[in-house]
Amino acid sequence: MAKNLSLLDKSQIEAYLTSNSLKIGVVGIGRIGLPTALCFANSGFETIGVDINTELVTMVNSGDYPLKDEPGFAEIFENVHRQKKFVATNDLSKAVPECDIILLSLPTPMDDKNIPDYTAFLSVGKSINKLLSNGQIVIVESTVEPGFIENELLQTIEGPNHTLKSGVDFHLAVCPETANPGEIMKDFKKLPRLVGSIDEKISSIVSQIYTHVFGVEIISMPNCKTANAVKLTTNVFRDVNIAFVNELALLFEKLGIDIYTVIDAAKRKYNFQPHFPGPGVGGPCLPVNSYQYLNSSKKIDQNFLKIVQEARRINENMPQHVIDLLVNAFSELNKQLDNSTIGLLGISYKPNVRDVQIAPSEAIIKLLNAKNVKLKIFDPYFMSETVFGHKIENSISDAIIDSDAVIIITGHKEFEELNLETFSNSRNKPILVDCTGKINPKDAKSRGIIFRGIGRGNYI
Ligand SMILES: NC(=O)c1ccc[n+]([C@@H]2O[C@H](COP(=O)([O-])OP(=O)(O)OC[C@H]3O[C@@H](n4cnc5c(N)ncnc54)[C@H](O)[C@@H]3O)[C@@H](O)[C@H]2O)c1
Question: Of 82, 86, 406, 460, which residue has the fewest beta carbons closer than 10 angstroms?
Answer without folding.
Answer: 82
